């Protein structure tokens, strides 16, 4: 049955990783995987790499216990409708949405995610810094293959899984219309985000990414964090040993992010977040999305 309740949405992006934002404070919306895929469809829907559903933490059974630490939960979905633990660019855009909606002033705001509570700092220049939490470096050796090229890749976990491959030229990743092969498959039983990286100079790299559940995107925040940590280790830097942060500028197709790994093993990400538009879904298009 078609609902008459107006369903608001916003569109935002962080370094051109774009999202449909769906405010649902009371968590009453039954957002199925098919609904998400329709919203993210770039021709027949709003279009986006994913959906950020904005739910009061206390109203969501998965994260209710975090309500004392963060008022709002970022229910992130990939554009194919699958659920992911974390989205770095999404946290910046989510913080920008909270500010846009009058729900958070400039300064610090806590955001509940499936990978725990992330603390974001909204600056007046529109940039957002997010404490992304602790990086994990599982020891398995991974190989990534595109066409005739294969590379060893570093397994990095930023709450969600990544395989980081240093390549000679970003063009070697090809068109990335389909998921690159990775081996052994058992290392990533729930799939993986794959980053291809080249050097640009000291403390400066560039990457492309094939995201689990979304395909090639123009940026991936958790991916940029994974890349910076992999680059630091490759460059012989381990902040936990030296006591000195390792900072990298990571160029993505849609801009640049600055990533620091800190001596306590956590990672900080700074980058832009933009709210582009807002509107109401047409009831006829929306159908039984309610
Ligand atoms: N674009 C995101 C990552 C989104 C989730 C990812 N596709 C996954 O399935 O883990 C980011 O900015 O981190």
UniProtKB/TrEMBL annotation:
It is an enzyme of class 5 (isomerase). GO terms for cellular component: cytosol. Substrate binds at residues 17, 78, 88-89, 160, 193, 211-212, 221-222. Transmembrane segments: none annotated. The keyword Cytoplasm applies. It catalyses: (2S,6S)-2,6-diaminopimelate = meso-2,6-diaminopimelate. Belongs to the diaminopimelate epimerase family. This is Diaminopimelate epimerase.
